[in-house]
Predict the structure.
Amino acid sequence: MAVVLSYSLVFFIPKSVEFSYSASSCTKHFTLAPDLQKFSSADFDATFKDGVRIGSVNLWATKVCIEPKETPKAGTFTASIAPFGGFVASKKIVITVPEVPVARSSDIIGKQISTAEPLKIKLTAADVVHRYSLKIADKETDCEQVAAELSCDVAPLGLQQGTAYTAALYQTYKEEDKKVIEGPVETLKPLSMTSASIGNDQTLYDKPTTVTFTFDQPVTRGEIALLKINGESAEEIALTQEVSGATLKVTFGELPRETKFKFDVNQVIAENGSSLAAPVAINFSTSGGPKVASVSVGGNSVSRSARIIVTFDQPIDDSVNVAKYARVTGVGGTVTKQSATQLAFTIQGGDCTAFSLVVDKGLKSGSNGTLSKDAWKFDSRTICGSSWVIGSSVKGRAIVAYSFGSGPNTILFTGAIHGSEPSSYTTMQAWAQYLQAHGDIVPADKRVVIVPNTNPDGVAARSRNNSRNVNLGRNFPTKNWSASIETASGTLPTGGGTSPGSEPEAAALIKLTRQLRPRLEVSFHAQGRLVGANKFKDSTAIGDIYAKTVGYRTIYYDAEAVMGYPMTGEYEDWMGEEMGIPAILIELPSHSGNYFNAQLPALRKMLTL
């Protein structure tokens, strides 16, 4: 009777199994010869575990575990275990399946998601039975599960920031996929770096051990690397990071000098999950000792008593005696410290004198203590020549002459006697500026005098004549002077002035010419690409040289025919008649423009005659 009762308890009382989504669904059940047992169920499979095996023979098992054949469904199911599937020793199994865990749709639908951080989705219960995956924009990513929460790695999907998408969460059992959530999502707008305490391509003169990066919203962490650049290779330097609100600070050890570095800001994550749209690279370098960054003068035309400021790229240490390292050569001079980053060189030189500013190596930096490795030298020249006012126009404008060299033979150049020919003024002004920088080209036996603007009122008004409507080119005391002159537009009764030299501009030029008694005078006019000569002494030979050099035509004997009217009281004729001075006249290609570069070869030849 006891045996029958025991048999009834073992085989006729059903075994209850609670199916679990969070763990294996097993129950204790002693089973003899499990390999001979057959598990009968339309919905589940079973395996026998935790038994004793001898060789390939299972003697018994103490646990039976069930697994759904298809996607689990909530409900109660029955199964049986019996040798060979018969009735004898059959054990009934009652399987209870709870509701399938459900993903929280609000974690996806309508949510703003990060493109760099995993998307977190809560489940109503843990679920290790199913595999979950997230699909966005035709790309899919697997979701890992911790407790009752899914973590879906969105980064491999390559989503664009600030963009709307449709997302779907799939629940998979074996090969069966089921879409459990679908709806719109929008990726977060990118995080932006608003500033950094170090600039791209910046040279660091001090010795910082921290750098800060600031963003447009609070951040939680960053992936930042500091690299020391060694040619084509790079060495990573250890650093620590600290976050405070929207600022991320990195701290590192003292950096070696005269070395290139790079910060790679690979990624930074904001509190809301937004991230950088793209990595940010910041290249920088550390300096060596002090180097000259700028000089306050150029390579010529420096005032004879100039105070020249030399600026360094970093402070000079206060302990440095600058007089020991810096000096002036070629002219007299002194050196003082103007500021932490500047030296002042005061020179005392003569006319057109070459000089040099010199700074020896070994200057100590006030920022990092490093010594400069290279000496520095700057070559320049004091201004060449001088200028003075030779007279004034009718309206009081100054007429300025420039002088270069000190030889006994003067070459006089004039321009803009006709104010409507400004190209003659700009070309002569450029000639004067050139000689201010290159006055050493004037031969020792020559002196060059330039009057770029002999009719300042006319140039200001763009008028051919002066402010009294007198053609200055016809106001000189030649044998054929006439008050009434012929012009391209007809007769001008007082165009030659009330008397020879009646105009202050012409009078100033007459006085200057008599004082200088130049070996040669060259007048500039416009327009026509022509060269004329007053036919005194070697003027035509000189005119030929000039014309050949610039490619112009000569008009020595047909000037009036070419111009179309008779010419009286001309400046060039007057100096030839009174002093026998050879003079040539150049008609530039157009009224406006600057023809200095084209004229320079011919101008320089004039200095050798």
Observations:
- The CA atoms of residues 190 and 277 lie 5 Å apart.
- Residues 1-9 have pLDDT under 50 and may be disordered.
- DSSP finds nine helices and 40 strands in the chain.
- The chain has five domains: 2-97, 105-187, 194-286, 292-381, 386-606.
